[in-house]
Amino acid sequence: MKTPVPRYTHLASKLNRLIDEGQVLPIEEMRRGIDDGYLFDRLGEFYGGEPHNLDLSVYGPGERREILDMFDRTANAYDTEHDLGITHNGLALILAYCLIEIGSAGSQ
After folding, report:
1. DSSP string across 50-82
2. Residue 2 domain flag
């Protein structure tokens, strides 16, 4: 039986694919999506259809809220440019947040 991919690993792989395809969303757009709670909806609007077919339906409302809360805490703990080296791609920013969470979970 296959083990489900942990939430941040799954999300990171989806974001990584978009970045590899050359997709860019402004950091400000990602921040707004985190702040207003609609990040998953915005990602779906931009990438849910052809040719990307991004499917984030595996994340229910409660899990989406937990992920957004983690993104918000991480955004307040790290300087985007200085600490993470990200200056313009919001997809790279939330990928970095996923990687930080994956790393911190592994160190516990």
Report:
1. TTT----TTS-HHHHHHHHHHHHHHHHHS-TTT
2. no
Q: Whole domain around residue 98: which residue ranges?
A: 7-106
CATH code of the domain covering residue 21: 1.20.120.600
Give the residue among 105, 98, 106 at the shortest CA–CA distance from 11: 98
pLDDT band at 106 (very low <50, low <70, confident <90, very high): low
When divided into structural domains, the chain yields a total of 1
Tens of pLDDT, residue by residue over 45-98, are 999 989 999 999 999 999 999 999 999 999 999 999 999 999 999 999 999 999
